Every structure is written in structure tokens, then in C-alpha cells.
């Protein structure tokens, strides 16, 4: 492969990027743009603007990462960053697939905007043993978004954020979903892949191949030493969040108008996740049928350990058929994606359930509020032992409120009628409610309410009523849903519910 040298940065662009005094810019230029130049000790050390790139076959390696002053990566699909770089606060164009390799360290400061290049399916991929510090603030979140102009952004404009580690999963080691070459997994439950705090990820999730889509944010075997909190994923072209194994603990997650599932757990993920909100666009659903939660132990339903046994608490799922979407019809005539259809290979489908637990998963959910889904819960027995685990107390659904569901539960995948069905025998009884229905109502504190009785408001301008005006108690000193009441402001400042029209 012919070596492609990055272009040198101009003096004017240096001034624009760094915002430094002109004399400092001249001093840096006279020292051949040395990485040691800085105006004071408090600023991060700038990385080389013209990094030395070497090639092994068609793979590019560099100890630097910024090209032409504001480009992360050189536009190839396999650029590997191997150094220790602290970016300056600014706006960058992410080009191609940029891997943070094992032993590398990347620091992205608060207030930085990273625009994903559509033409190169840009993605930032943290390899096992790599470390990325993305620590925004409520006032200055880090934004990863589409490079397209306002009004022209679509789901899947770029790849997304993928973080992989050396934690446990029930497949040993495996390639991460979506196409990257990354192999994740190990035996370090407390593995540390960095800090991911106060981040927005918008219009990501490229459909690389059938059933191999890059999600908005993907975690592969990420260990509990990793800090993950205050992340909003908007208009993802696949799942908003997906975990493949690992023990990462996460909090304050927002899934906004994603294409497929909001929270997808697989391959032995056993972390604790708290304070989560999802809001669906009633016109966007995936061909596989979209759920709030979709949970598998693995694809075959095999009883391999560690089991998918994550514990989610204080969750609010706002589905497609709320009082604000009174005209909703779960059909292709209605679910068209409107002006958000990306025309990139993605296919539309129907909405299914708030919770689909299947394939030997032992997912636990507590203190949750789910509104306006066709189905409340599916304890899916098509593959694996999920039904047996439910009957034996292997996992729990507790202190959960359903409102506005067409069916409390169904036993059969892609079946919207609430009746008893047994996959093991193939028998059904349409005069009896589904096992899923019975299991839900048998859970401690679970109940069904009218949406109007919840007294919900929309203090954060999400487009949907999601916050109760007063606390919905769980009867045990806690509360139901992601918010205690309308004054609970953990989304204030850093979230954005109109990314289509935001000027970055």
C-alpha cells in the first residue's frame, strides 16, 4: 500500500484550533510544531499535528491521531492509534475507523465536539487494554454527532462509539458486533477501559451488514473499573445501548428515538445499571421488531456462564402509543420513519414489547415505569430456559408499573395476543392469560395503571410526558421510574432533544 502522508497544518488553522495568542502560535511554528508547546501547565499537552504514520499491509499506525489540525484519523478504515494524546477542546472530524490500541491512552476534554464522517463510516473503537478519558460536564458535555448539516442528519450517518475490555463474557473471546476487527473478552472482571461521562452520541449506528450493525454505544466485555454515566444516545440506527458481557456499572442513560432496541444485554453482562430513560419515535421501529429491553444469555440460548444477569433499576420507558401519539398504528403504513429515513440499508418494522427476556437470560428489572407499548413483557421460551428460570426465581421483575399496554404479556415471539402458550409442548390455551402476564402480576409491587393516573409532565422538553409530578412510591422507601418527580433534574444542561437542528 502506498504511504499517504497527512497534510501539514497551516498557521492560520493553528490559531483557529488552539485559540492561543499569536506569539505563542509563532513560537510553536518556529519549533517545528513541537508537541511540547503549551501556553501554561494547566492546558493538555497538544498532540502532533503531522504525526508519523507507518503501514503494515493495509493497516496504519501512528503515535499521533490528529491530522490537518482537526481530523481524528486519516480516513482509512483501519487506523490504529498507539500513543498517549490529550486533545485540546475544539471541534474535530472523525474519519474512518479509529482504534485506540492496547496500551494507548486518549483524553477528550469537556466541551469537545466530534463529527462523524459519513463517507468513511467513522467510528471510535477502544480496544481491550486501551484507555479513553471522555469526561464532559453537565455544562460542557462531549458531543459525538453527524457531520451532516442541520436538517440533513439521519440515523446511521456514522458508526458510533465502541468500547471493549478484558472482562468476562460467556463466549470466551469474540469479535465485537458491527464489523470492526476487535476481539474482546478476558478474565478481569474489574478491567478499566476509561471514563465515559457526560457524553451525547447522535445519529450513529451504521448498518455494516445484516445483523452486524454498529450500535450508538456498544460495550464489549467492559469491566467494573470503567466509569460510565450521563450518556445520551439519540437517533441510533440500531440499538441505542448494547452490552456484550462485562461487569460495567452504568448510570444516567438516555435512549432517544432509536431504531431498534433501547437497552440490549447479551453474553453474560452482569453489571448494575440505574436511572435510565428511553423515549421512542412512534414512526421508527426495526424490521426485527423493536423493544425497550431485549436480553439474551447468548444467541442459541445455551446455559453458559456467566449468565446475563444485569440489574436495572429506576427505569422509564416511553413507548410509541402514548396519549401524545393517540393516532399510533403498529403497521408499515404508519411506521415510515418520515424525514428520518436514512436510505442506507436499514429496514423498518414494528414495535413489540417493553421487556423481551429470552434465550436463557436472567435479566433483573426493578422500580421501572413502562408506558405505551403493544406488549408489556415477553418471557420468551422459544430458545433456552428463560421460562424455567422465571418459574424458579432465577430472575425478578419487581416494583414495575405498566400503563397503556395492548397486552400485559405474551409467551410467543412476535405474537401480540395475550394467551397461554408453551414452546416445549407446542400447546396453547386462548382462554388463559399468558405465563408472561401471570409472572408479571405475581412479581412484588408490580401493577397496571392508567397513563392519566400517573400525572406525568415533560419538564425537559423530550416531546413526551416522562416525569411524574409527584413521587410514585414503591412502598419500600424508593420510587418508580427514572425520576423521583418533576423537580428531579439529572438531565438538566447536558441532554439535547433536538439534535437535528442544533448548530455545532
Question: What features would you highlight for this structure?
Answer:
mainly beta; 13-stranded mixed sheet; 35 strands
Largest sheet data: 16 strands, mixed
Q: pLDDT below 50 for ≥5 consecutive residues: which ranges?
A: 1-46
**Strand segment count:** 35
Q: Helical stretch count? A: 4
Number of structural units classed as domains: 2
Query: Beta-strand level of the residues, as a percent range?
Result: 25-35%
List the helices and strands and how they pair.
Blueprint: H1 11-18, H2 22-30, E1 53-56, E2 59-62, E3 66-67, E4 71-72, E5 79-81, E6 84-86, E7 91-94, E8 97-100, E9 105-108, E10 113-116, E11 123-126, E12 131-135, E13 142-146, E14 160-164, E15 174-175, E16 183-184, E17 194-202, E18 217-220, E19 227-234, E20 241-244, E21 250-256, E22 263-266, E23 272-279, E24 293-295, E25 311-318, E26 353-357, E27 364-371, E28 375-379, H3 386-392, E29 397-403, E30 407-410, E31 420-422, E32 427-429, H4 435-442, E33 447-449, E34 456-457, E35 467-468
Tell me about this structure.
- The chain folds into two domains: 112 residues, no CATH class; 381 residues.
- It has four helices and 35 strands.
- 6% of the residues lie in helices and 31% in strands.
- The N terminus is likely disordered.
- With 504 residues, the protein is mainly beta.
- The strands form five sheets. It has a 16-stranded mixed β-sheet that branches. A 13-stranded mixed β-sheet has the order 1-2-5-8-11-14-18-20-22-24-26-28-30. It has a two-stranded antiparallel ribbon with strand order 15-16.
- The two termini are 36 Å apart.
